[in-house]
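Today's session is about reading a structure prediction critically. Students often jump straight to the picture, but the first step is always the sequence itself: look for stretches that repeat, for charged clusters, for runs of hydrophobic residues. Only then move on to the predicted structure, which in these notes is written as discrete structure tokens rather than atom positions. Here is the chain we will use throughout the hour.
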Amino acid sequence: MNVLGIETSCDECSAAVVADGNRILSNVIATQIELHRPFDGVVPELASRLHTQWISQVVQAALMQAGLTKEDIDAVAVTNRPGLLGSLLVGVNFAKGLAASLDIPLIGIDHIRAHLYAPQIEHPLEYPYLGVLLSGGHTVICRVDSYDSVEVLGTTIDDAIGEAFDKVAKHYGLGYPGGVMIDRLAQNGDPMAFRFSGPDLSKGYHPYDLSYSGLKTAVINQLDMFSTGKPATPENIAASFQRVAVGMLMKNVDKALKDTGLKRISAGGGVAANSLVRSSLKKYEEQGCEVSFPSLKLCTDNGAMVAGLGYRYLKDGIVSGMDLSASARVAAFKKA
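Below is the predicted structure for this chain, in token form.
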């Protein structure tokens, strides 16, 4: 069964064809990075205009790469929340029109669940497992019991981890995308050049919650207060910031693993491509845990994760109506 997945939640215009939920026949990603680079961030209006211009060609390219025609598609899955509303609407409306014209099912997909499903396409992991979603808009530690059953254990109370990376990079002119540049620079920096620390959330917050606003502020506005006398090079700033940002996450992941007794971990989202995140999570294999990551191409926003998850819904008879709408907001998740 071939499912076409369409992803336009932010600045990646992507379409993919996935067979039976795990066999990627095509995955075309038209990135807008170079067009947003002058602004050191995504400009929502520009993103939605580019999606409008590109989406037809991107979908056609995905079909050609898969060696299929529109008539070979059994269903259309599309990200409909959360994300930039204008960008989401482009994908949703295109998908609705295509599904209606072919008289095939339409499936609305939650962006967060899609990222959590992405590792399952290449490296299937038995449920339940601890899911770690890391991106520019989200930081979530959760228990995943099935493709559609997610219990949020902890999340950020302010900035997402990817947002903190991007804002620090923008302030110091390190380049865009910020997370990629910080990771690259950190390889040649001293992670102890600046003694940043994470916040104390022991009172009034859930034990797995995170906060990156204070760390971001310290790196941007209070650098001298945390200096050890080492030079304030971009490499040292990047390495010191990344050490603490990832360390905060791992502290809560460690707590969640011990408290839940789970022995499987799966990470997804753009920041799951970060080298320190991947190496830190891989260390849990030494404790007998199974650790699963998507390939780097499936860490970024992509149509394959949408199509793969769409197949699971389709198989269970869960489809959307033509009244499917887009929403910028995160859907309600079960919370611990």
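Discussion point for the tutorial: Residues 204 and 329 are 25 Å apart (CA to CA).
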